[in-house]
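Milestone 3.1: sequence recovery, worked example.
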């Protein structure tokens, strides 16, 4: 067994403290969701667990509808982003484009990615009003697509470029079309990038507040972050309901990171080391 040196002990201790500091707010949220309002206000560490907040949140505040809206907006955005970005990334990474065209496209994608999201809030509001899709999940999906596509295309382009040209040339010689090469050869090799782009798109869309509050006005299309903000009312703050909503809002992110974490590191660092 390796001997524990002082630097290693300090590193482990630092990581443990960091994990505790990170997880403590999450644990407090879950604990608060099982407390009666009187226990939350009193700050007592000893309390009788209850599902009162869960029942009240789902029955009195239609939280189930907000949950469905968030799932529709995040899932719809992720599916469309992956479909478009995988095709665009493969095209930019493997097809013979003019250098000026590639530079122009990449510069445009980077420009959109670098602009503050708040810049798009006003124009999206006016566009959705004119198109008659304001206060619908489609309005949110449209806004999220514009913000998520650039990064996803850049990630998947790097993965497409990493696919060996010799494999594609051999497939061409055997008579495979571009569609077959993309679906049967390149796409399976791009799975880590697809997982990374999908995770980032879903998490951003799921957690977004600014566009959700700008493009929706009723529980018909509101998402969970907007619902959480509405629990802070004029004369009271419903801490129990906020904790319930926050607990449900955290679950998809935890699950997706657990299942996709082995792809995320490679997806974010592809191209950083060359050779």
């Amino acid at each position: 067994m390796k001997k524990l040196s002082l630097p290693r002990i300090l590193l482990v201790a630092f990581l443990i403290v960091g994990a505790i500091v990170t997880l403590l707010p999450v644990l407090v949220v879950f604990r608060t969701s099982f407390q009666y309002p009187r226990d939350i206000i009193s700050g007592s560490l000893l309390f009788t667990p209850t599902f009162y907040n869960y029942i009240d949140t789902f029955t009195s505040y239609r939280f189930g509808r907000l949950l469905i809206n968030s799932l529709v907006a995040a899932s719809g955005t992720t599916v469309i982003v992956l479909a478009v970005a995988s095709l665009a990334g493969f095209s930019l990474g493997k097809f013979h484009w003019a250098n000026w065209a590639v530079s122009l496209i990449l510069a445009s994608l980077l420009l959109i990615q670098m602009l503050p999201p708040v810049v798009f809030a006003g124009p999206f509001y006016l566009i959705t009003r004119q198109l008659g899709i304001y206060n619908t999940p489609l309005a949110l999906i449209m806004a999220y697509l514009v913000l998520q596509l650039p990064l996803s295309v850049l990630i998947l382009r790097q993965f497409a470029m990493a696919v060996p040209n010799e494999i594609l040339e051999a497939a061409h010689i055997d008579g495979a079309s571009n569609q077959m090469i993309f679906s049967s050869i390149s796409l399976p090799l791009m799975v880590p990038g697809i997982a990374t782009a999908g995770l980032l798109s879903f998490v951003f869309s799921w957690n977004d507040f600014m566009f959700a509050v700008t493009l929706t006005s009723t529980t018909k299309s509101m998402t969970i972050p907007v619902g959480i903000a509405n629990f802070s009312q004029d004369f009271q703050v419903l801490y129990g309901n906020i904790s319930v909503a926050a607990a449900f809002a955290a679950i998809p992110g935890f699950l997706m990171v657990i299942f996709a974490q082995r792809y995320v590191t490679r997806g974010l660092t592809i191209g950083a080391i060359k050779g």
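Residues 271-275 have pLDDT under 50 and may be disordered. The chain has one domain: 60-269.
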